[in-house]
Structures
1.
Amino acid sequence: MEKSSNRPDMSVNIAGVELKNPVMTASGTFGSGMEYSEFVNLDHLGAVVTKGVASVPWEGNPTPRVAEVYGGMLNAIGLQNPGIDVFIERDLAFLKQFDTKVIVNVCGHTEEEYLDVVERLADQPVDMLEINVSCPNVKQGAIQFGQDPKCLEEITAKIKRLAKQPVIMKLTPNVTDISVMARAAEAGGADAISLINTITGMKIDIEKRQFVLANKTGGLSGPAIKPVAVRMVWQAANAVKIPVIGMGGIASAEDAVEFMLAGASAVAVGAMNFHDPCLTQKVVDGMEQYLVRHNISAAREITGAVL
Amino acid sequence: MKKKTTMTVTDIRSIAEGIFSMTLQYRKEDMPEQVKPGQFAGLYPNDASRLLPRPISICRWDAENRELRFVFRTAGAGTASLAAQKIGDKVDMLGILGNGYDLEKLAGKKVLLLGGGIGIPPMVELAAALSQIPGTDVTAAMGYRNSDLFLTQELSSYGKLLIATEDGSVGTKGNVLDAVRENAVEPDAVCACGPMPMLRAVKKFAQEKGIPAYISLEERMACGVGACLGCVTKTVGVDSHSHVRNARICTEGPVFNAQEVAI
């Protein structure tokens, strides 16, 4: 389709997958799109990234699972999900009705569990896989793989051997040096990396002298974490050649542009979907307006373009 | 169809200590198709640092004037900022959320409505709706801490009203079930909203009487629309969404058959 000359080209290419624009949903904040399809036309998004799916249904953590904090929120959902069978039959079938890319977030307690899901998705109509090696809220697995560069490289390599789709490794910010982790994922053969997952946090009710979350700790997300996320995206993007997908507290198109300038090839809107269920669309529109305002012909040109 | 809409405050006042009544009016184009008793909305504090909507049950729906009435307790900075709104101010709202009470299951029955504390407000809309259904008998028993009562005038206009107070200053001394027993109420069905110990007692009461109990649950919520899986309740059977035993209070609830939740 020919684009009118005054409209910027919003498309971006991540590991060979062409997205109509750089705006995705952050895993866990958008379900499988069904709930938010009442608010947003999913056809207008670059990609929908699903909530983490495991090989079997997961119950998740006890409640309370969420708490608001200044400028953000804590969550310790514990990756409750219906498992891959229901996911394929119901959620994936739903998503395939839309003209958007589908990125499935994969979680597991053990290497075998990750590989099981990756294998089950091999012949499914899925555009990319995002591997959650960074959830701070499950007892085993997940973050253990994401905090040790050797483990991260190994699991990335094992997943890459089985995966039929490009693989995005989702990194945790709960490490000393993010560039080491970014390079480990790249060395394992990752096609892209996404960051940041939530930052481990805590809230205490001083009147009751109790932890607010049943899990005691939870992952901090929302605008409160954005400066940390922008810094880490910049560090990671400078450490690797593979594309970086940036996220962490995006609340506006301006925030999304900031991540792109820091080095992200695409961005994801997370916790702020809860504040404004139409935010993803607004980010797409606002980013296009930014490009027009700055006379930039394509969204991809602002990746890493901080001076 | 759920929407985030900007509402206008048409009334706001304190009706008891720490309890506020706020009426919000829809713009014509934002009107919902339907509002059911027991449903709720997410009200956003006018403070960008508080990003999550506050889930607040609907106390009254006036379709003619496009007005929703909410009665809430100030529990923290978010609800305090809502309480500080003035007539004419704008409040963003996510609605209409949740399943609400199934009136068909209650039609023609002797229905007992139980409300405890800030669980009382949704019982007003339910009493109003049930009182419109021919052959349906409404008795309400509401529990308060003390004589600082609220919404009693509204509730008594739709049926019989019993009152229980913790300090015994008004009505039965004790809880709502003490008032029910003292007045020998024999219902065919119970609807309840209130603190968890009360809901557990209601579940037991209904079990003993062999009648259905529909209870409205509360939990810390984030998205309000079923996406984040923050506000789940343990269920007896496998839930329809995640196929575990965790139903979403914002979506499958907040009203559940008491025998189907593991509270």
2.
Amino acid sequence: MARIGVFICWCGSNIASTVDVKAVAEAAADFPGVAHSVEYKYMCSDPGQTLIRQAIKEKQLTGLVVAACSPRMHEPTFRRAALESGMNPYLVEMANIREHCSWVHEDRAEATTKALETVRMLVEKVRRNTPLEEIRVPVTKRALVIGGGVAGIQAGLDIISAGIPVTVVERTPSIGGHMSQLDETFPTLDCSQCILTPKMVELSQSPLTTIYTYSEIEEVTGYVGNFKVKIRQKAKTVDHVKCTGCGICVEKCPAKVPSEFECGLADRKAIYVPFPQAIPNKPVIDRPNCIYFAKGKCGVCKKICPAEAIDYDVEDTIVEEEVGAIVVATGYDLIDRALYGEYGYGKIADVVDGLQFERMLSASGPTGGKLIKPSTGETPKTVVFVQCVGSRDDSKGIPYCSRICCMYTAKHAMLFKHKVKDGKAYIFYIDVRAGGKGYEEFVKRAVDEDRVVYLRGRVSRIFEKNGTVFVKGSDTISGQQVEIRADLVVLATAVAASDGARQLAQKLRIGFDQHGFLTEAHPKLRPVETNTPGVYLAGTCQAPKDIPDTVSQASAAASKVLGLLSSDELVREPLVAHVSESVCISCFACEDTCPYGAIERVEWKDPETGLTTEIARVNPGICEGCGACIPVCRPKAVDLRGFSEEQIYSEINALSDMFKVKR
Amino acid sequence: MKSTSVADSTKTASTQFLERVEEQSGQKVRICYQCGKCSAGCPVGYAMDLLPNQVMRLVQLGLKDEVLSCATIWLCASCETCATRCPREIEIVKVMDVLRQKSRREGYPSPAREVPVFVSAFINNLKRFGRLYEAGLVGVYNLLSGHITKDMDKAPAMLLKRKIALMPPRVKGMGKVRKIMKNIEEMRQQ
């Protein structure tokens, strides 16, 4: 026999001014199964909770309905209060008569009726609640970081600083990411290499770190605290254990291809180390461009290698790792050049993008830090910088702001003026967005000290006529059309999601937006978590951001990882789905529907017939209790603990009974 | 600097003006964020009194008199360079069309006087002959615009190459053409 206690909260005047709480408490006392019904000014306060705790003992209550605010606010509070009096916390339910009632209604009589109906529904539900136990799952104390750019490096460093081992998977032959390509960084103009490479070394030399370069994620299974990850190590063709990194092979290799690291401004060999400070500083063979792999002839590297490290027969290998948490830090790419035909991007030699300009500025770059016109090799005197190339452009399918361009363009113009004292720098902009510590001051410095000229307007067209590059733009402030003969044009091309981000997101079962950026659990309050527990985001894979923000987010993701891995067991809410074995017809529609991959196939022996069949089982460690499996289950074998069909129907029936009475 | 009170009028006539222009052109003028790419690439921009982005701005602010009496709307060549490149995908040409219609209908004088003269001569020519009679159009336009001898020197060569004809074209079904013209007139009345 149910003995339910109903506790109506005034929430000061928040509820009581719109809902007649006394009337609700009196009426609720007569509901079937209700043994006790009271109201109180602040149910969440200490006296309020004491009221509940005493009533549980004195009235021998078997369940509670607390009619107050949203369960998001105080469900944990009241469940804890119940537990202190020896009641299973899952026998407590909240009727939301604040957010769903008093706050959104004005008519007192109607609001009171609605509050009563809500309480009635919850009473019916609680009558059918069963005691539930929290789910405990063990935790693997190791983290995986996907992507070895500055975000991945920072997250990795912060995780190992707490003594937790970390596995870093990087797609290219070296860690370092885009930051290793940059020259100086805004707003302090400190050299990118000088602040990044020590971090690369620190991460790679820690005994807690395992780095897989030239590798990609093949498959991710498991769940929070217990992921199983398959990593595909692409065949490097060079045995990094034997290789001493002497570099003779690179020197002698006859095959040249445009270097990705130098953004096509210089060539690299088919056997290569992407840049001098690379980690690991040992080469790989880029097989599609290797003469030996294309034609079966050459083999110079193998012949010359003193360490006999070259083996043409090695194949991709799959490594398996078990980790408790995953940080995704896959970074960004620049937009496709073909998107901007009107700017001659990719066609006119003296039109380059921001990353190419960085390589030209860099002392270790293809020009040794000398600025040149790529077409002639002369020093450019007039450089035009164009912002928002792609960004904020619905017609190119990129409505967002890339966030970093305003600042790096100011920096580019500044560094150009530092190198070419008598040069002229023009920046076409729409709005200058310099919201960051020291950013606005930095832009002012470009105008004030370095005499950079800002022109407000988007450029319409960039074209070449008799070897001269013309930039046709406007200055909307003076209301004039502007045409500039430029020696060099630098396009601030939009930041786009990294190639393959979508596919990786699908493997991890995390969300991504229409542009391929990965989705956080909440844009404000859970910015580094994803909707899949145990998977976190860091850096530009989530949205365009600069280095300070990327590093902050990486550290935030690491702190989330450490919070998760600090306990030996994970405690999870028991509100998960379960399958009734004898009813399951093995159609596995639930398996296809489950967004979290929580459905497993298990052998089950029917105790009545003795037959063994393969049926669905819910892994409670993975299940998020979303309930998507329930409507697709044809024989109704799946049900949700704490939100069973019986409970939901009893709520609906209670409500329809009250409607009948009203009529 | 010329001062125009935007705040006073935004609530009434001016927002109506923006809404009418948007409705008639089918273009969301309100989302123009003044990047100026239209003005940057406009081949007629050098001759305009207001650049295309400024026209869009005046429409946004509802400054009807300023925009309907400018020369730009008459100088626009409808080449669609702006529309092709607009990052907000506004077809400025359609907005210009609507502005020209409004300007004519509401009797605003055009600073680019020849353009409306040409447009009238062109339409009357079509009404009369059903197809364009170039020699007639040039004659009427030159008379009304005051450039009597304009392009006369080109006439012999064009006649010889049969680019223009001396006599008006003969069109079958002039009755139908007149009916079309009448329908247009009736639609306009509505």
